[in-house]
Amino acid sequence: MKFNRLGQTGLYVSEICLGTMTFSGENYFGGVIGTLGQKEATALIARSLEARVNFIDTANVYSFGESEKMTGQALKDLGVKRSDVVLATKVYGRMGPGPNDMGGSRGHIMDSVSRSLERLQTDHIDLYQIHHSDTITGVEETMRALDDLVRQGMVRYVGVSNWEAWKIVKANGVADKRGWTRIETTQVYYSIAGRDLEQDIVPMMQDQTIGCLVWSPLAGGYLAGKYTPGGGAKAEPGRRAKFDFPPIDKDKADKIVVAMRDVAKAHGVSVARVALAWVRQKPFVTSTIIGAKTLEQLNDNLEAVTLTLSPEEMAKLDEVSADRAQYPHWMIKRNNAFRVPTGEPVKVGGPPPKS
To answer: Which of 154, 170, 102 is nearest to 131 (CA)?
Structure first.
């Protein structure tokens, strides 16, 4: 297990993060994500810690607080030293019927943080994340509230999830101007079947030194290969059968899975492990969040850290999964093709380079 620096902080987190969305079943999706009880949840956390995972991610909205409760109870039952684990949770999702029971407002953040601390049975949250992009609340209000939590010692670092690149830059600009705590991480959907991130968010993260925490690296289980024909076994029912999320181009994803099967066969590993290794080997990824319903699934996912794909294998998978460049990126590439001097004479007025 390797450990990577979290954004610009001095904190290091494991390259694998245990996600806890499978804990309990009191969620918006009727238990499709997972229905694990306390005993099973504690076993998953214990196995992850044994594998040197020091990073656990949850959210107040996961099963309406039950996931946080079970995470906190597991850490207590296991006797885990608080400083040995980096505990992350999130705020935004609807936690009640009222008009102010969700969002990134100061009111909802302040109402929510103490409840998360109580459920987690801790006096501080290492990474407190705004779960979604609020189209109503201004970033100044959100960032001021987060800064207050850091100054009060309830929160150590702050991050966001599912935010636009421009909003993260704006929020950190406000924070820099006011002397407030900055956004250190963004939790994002990224997989070999969903590479939208690379067009705007990845360049932003690299420029601003923002940590990248990847959710759903297996695209809701689709990249495990059991939904793609030709796997040699009957497709099993799973999360995708009842909750078809995140959205993917399944025809393209099937071609990717077929290519990954060849790689998996060459290494004697599962297709899922190849998909996880592909994400983990991207240089901008800080930690990959895995969620499991069984110890068997967890163990297979954890073993992804021992799999290193060759440059040729990475190039092959990059090619089969490549996205079409969106505007203005194809235009920028086209018009900067001759920007760097090569020593060759450039014909003025000649045809534009091919994009």
So the answer is: 102
Closest listed residue to residue 55, CA positions, set 82, 23, 77, 87: 87
The helix (H) or strand (E) run that includes residue 91 is: strand 86-91
Q: Which H or E run contains 57?
A: strand 55-57
Domains in the chain (CATH in brackets) are 3-221+281-307 (3.20.20.100)
CA distance 302 to 277: 10
Three-state DSSP class for residue 191: strand
| 171 vs 184: CA distance, rounded Å | 11
Q: Which residues lie below 8 Å from residue 241, measured CB to CB, with a gap of 6+?
A: none
206: left (phi over 0), alpha (psi -120 to 50) or beta: alpha
Q: How far is CA 176 from the centre of its chain?
A: 25
- Phi, psi dihedral angles at 326 (to 5 degrees): -95, 160
Alpha helices in the chain (DSSP H): 38-50, 66-77, 106-120, 139-151, 165-178, 197-208, 239-242, 250-267, 271-280, 295-302, 311-321, 329-335
pTM over 0.85: yes
Catalytic residues: 62
The CB density around residue 83, as the number of other CB atoms within 10 Å, is 8
| Per-residue pLDDT in tens (0 to 9) along the chain, 355 residues | 999 999 999 999 999 999 999 999 887 677 888 899 999 999 999 999 999 999 999 999 999 999 999 999 999 999 999 999 999 999 999 999 999 999 999 999 999 999 999 999 999 999 999 999 999 999 999 999 999 999 999 999 999 999 999 999 999 999 999 999 999 999 999 999 999 999 999 999 999 999 999 999 999 999 999 889 876 555 555 667 777 889 999 999 999 999 999 999 999 999 999 999 999 999 999 999 999 999 999 999 999 999 999 999 999 999 999 999 999 999 999 988 878 777 777 676 656 666 5
Q: For residues 64 and 164, give the distance between their C-alpha atoms in angstroms, rounded to a whole number.
A: 26
